[in-house]
Automatic annotation (TrEMBL):
One GO MF term: RNA helicase activity
Name of the protein: DEAD-box ATP-dependent RNA helicase RhpA
Listed GO CC annotations: cytosol
EC number(s) per entry: 3.6.4.13
Reaction(s) this enzyme catalyzes, per UniProt: ATP + H2O = ADP + phosphate + H(+)
Species annotation: Gemmatirosa kalamazoonensis
Pfam family, one: Helicase_C
Record's compositionally biased regions (Basic and acidic residues): 483-522
GO biological process, alphabetically ordered: response to temperature stimulus; ribosome assembly
Residue span(s) of domain Helicase ATP-binding: 49-222
Amino acid sequence: MSAPTSPELLDTVPPDDGGFAALGLRPELLTAVTALGYEEPTPIQRAAIPVLLEGRDVLGLAATGTGKTAAFALPLLDRVAGARNRDGSPAALVLVPTRELAMQVAEAVHKYGRPLGIQVVPIYGGAPMGRQLSALERGVDVVVATPGRALDHLGRGTLRLDSVRVVVLDEADEMLDMGFEDELRAILEATPTERQTALFSATMAPQVARIAGAHLRDPARVEIAREPMAAGTVPRVRQTAYVVPRAHKLATLGRVLDIEAPTSAIVFCRTRTEVDELTETLAGRGWSAEALHGGMGQEARDRVMRRFRGGQLELLVATDVAARGLDVEHVSHVVNYDVPSAPEAYVHRIGRTGRAGREGAAVTIAEPREHRLLRNIERLTGQKIEFAVVPTVADLRARRLDLTRAAVQDALVEAQTNAARLDRFRIVVETLANEFDLMDVAAAAVSVAHEATAGDAEEDDVEIPTVTVGEYRGGSRTAGRFGRFERNERPRRESWRDEGGREGARESAREGGREGGREGGREGAPPDSNVAPARRASGTPTTRGGTRERVATAAPATRRASTSAPGGRRGSARRISSARSRTRRGCTRAPSGPSRSPTGSRSSRSPNRRWRR
């Protein structure tokens, strides 16, 4: 291959003067996009499609949700339709980071290429190998694959790439972040050197530049900048951060969800264990929530995504790897239960909301030590993150009263069209009205309804300490830097008995196959890979039922330990913070305070939820 050269930057996007018809696509493809309801190409499509039709390599930089799939799929199909391999080997290969994205891209390519009779097959880890082998043996025009499973098929000799004419690397930055650089190089080396290559990425990380320089020939660089906001306009994605002590993250999440009232939200966690525990607690407190992570079987993941896309779920609690590439337009909120260590990961996360011209909200719950990560994110995105104050007890109670008022108002509106709905209650009101003032009767009825839906719980009287971001200086935790706790507000110190070192990093790769192991390990690992071994608490921690048990530890001087009570109602011994070992200055930073058992049931959502410290 010739020596890499600097990509030619296309300074302008072709004017939108003729829709898709002006881009030079085949009539069959124009028929397909028209049938799918596409009217005008997006900027990345107008810029990339003509260049790809010319046969040039392309380095495309555009944010998630800008129409990249059609930008490479339509010209790919145009080229494949004119030069299909007679032996049934694939003429085009699309590499993507995750199983979900592989299925979505394959579905899109199938829809676009249906008038041309193009055969496409997705291959990815976690799915039966036999079906994929059968599809490849029958013959296929386009293969959409994850790197790990593609390399498995190459090793078996069941995937031939010697006749591939077009290769697309979609979400290249994410594949490289997941550690697939060696796999990508091996796959690309198995393809002809005269192939056409298109690389699409949301960011231009050093790894992306390295791959582009080594495997793209004289590429045209198509970069779609973010549209500048006019003065006085509101950004499509409202970015907010709450900086709170670690012990108060769960309570903060609860209050923020109650105040924001999302209709469809994705809550991002760092590890699978965090995802499972947080999902259980959210579901127990009235939210319709389900988990999505690499440790789940493909059938379970598909079921969860069908429910989320169908509007049956309010909250999808997921890891970065599992949620990568999700194409759901109605996501109203993205919640970061931790701050991503890489700013690029933050960009990918918030790209799930504010799509298709809709407004969205990105909420981040950060610890004081994560303040600098937020500043790095601001520098990368060029957008300010608003540091907000956690809703107070008064805010929470006011919100709950609003929900009660709205519920009563809905009942009254419905009664106007269905008078029989309230008839059986009128006798109660008439009887009480003979003894008490009618206004007092109504107020008492509303009070009963409010309390019955878990109104003001005793533990909600505790204010969540607010950390003043401006007081942060140099990472010091001296008094006054982060705000001082009152004695009765200080979270109890605890330590965890850690089974097998870092949870997540060694809980690991259970997806099956080379790719599944890679995904599982990457998504579970904490950002700091040099984590020192956790210091064990005094006493002898035990396990019950194969689960970790907390050991509450007194002040370091006394080193007394006592075991917290196991059992109790569902979720009573669950902590939402991950049980992974964290260290600061050589000692373990441990989560504090078990969350109490949830109220309400999974089947009946209460508009007023109890959130405990």
